[in-house]
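hey so i finally got around to running the thing on that chain from the lab meeting. sorry it took forever, my laptop kept dying and i had to restart like 3 times. anyway pasting the input first so we r on the same page abt which one it is
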Amino acid sequence: MQKQIKGFSLIEMLLVMVIVSGALFMAASYFRQRSLQMRIDRTSLQMQQILNAGLAYYVANNKWPVANNTSVDITATPTTNNLQANGYLPKGVTIANPFSGGHYSMYTDSTGKLFTVYTSITGGSAGFPAAAGNSIAGTLPLAATTATAGTPPPIGTTAICSTTTTTCYIVTSINIPGQNLNAAGAVNFAGVYRHGGCVPVPTCPTDPATGTALTAEIQVVPVSVSGLNDSGSNAVYPISSFTAYAKGPATQPTQPPNCINETTAPPCNTNIQGNAPASNAYWRVCLQVITEKGDVQGTNNSTSNPATDYGANVTLMAITRCSISNEPAGSKFTIYGN
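ok and heres what got predicted. didnt touch it at all, straight out
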């Protein structure tokens, strides 16, 4: 009898090799695409993080972290650039995109209105820098790509990265925070007070730009004004004018001075109107009312029950803040400060 020999035919082996090769090719392609997407996502997130850090720096310091018409290479200066040196980005960490080219730079235009972050992608197959760059730009605010180098790279319809581009630059920008309004973000506290009320002076931090303490300031705004003339009198007179202001010396004591022409203002250590303990420094907010009868310094100036009676007929809003030393002035008008 003839013995039967078992095994795989050449065709069967070739078929298995084709199937295995196809599976390996698809797996390799998937991991390549996945790796590329991870690098795109990482670059997008890092650029967005730099933009957010620039915004945080502006809100705190009323200026961008780089001087106007100047570019700073963040990747080349991981410990000395303003964002990392002041803790807005992790200190001592080199932040670079995972593509060839790698460096992130920040730039402020000559007007100081735009803060720009840019980076580049080089190498790879034909069209790779443009494809990766356009994918990154699509996830960022006010972003575009360009094939033209510059400080920062100029963007425009004639410079968009194409399939023939060997180096693609990604440029994204943000403008001044809309709610800043001359460091309005530095407002510490706003509250409603009566005439003669005590407003705690804020403890201001150090200005990172100068190394000196920020200046405590207060703004006082009239909210309601009465023509009632004097305590215990029901006579009402037409109001000619009124002015809100604050009192406090250059070196703040526990007790601020009285309002102009006042002798009966309650002390601030009585916790009037829910103020802080007497160990704090205070401003006193005042409202000067001029009626047809004359100067009315505060209505219902009662000392018997100051928590409920003193200045009961007028209302003031006091806003305290800490201003930086190099804050741009919108006009010659200044507010009260120490």
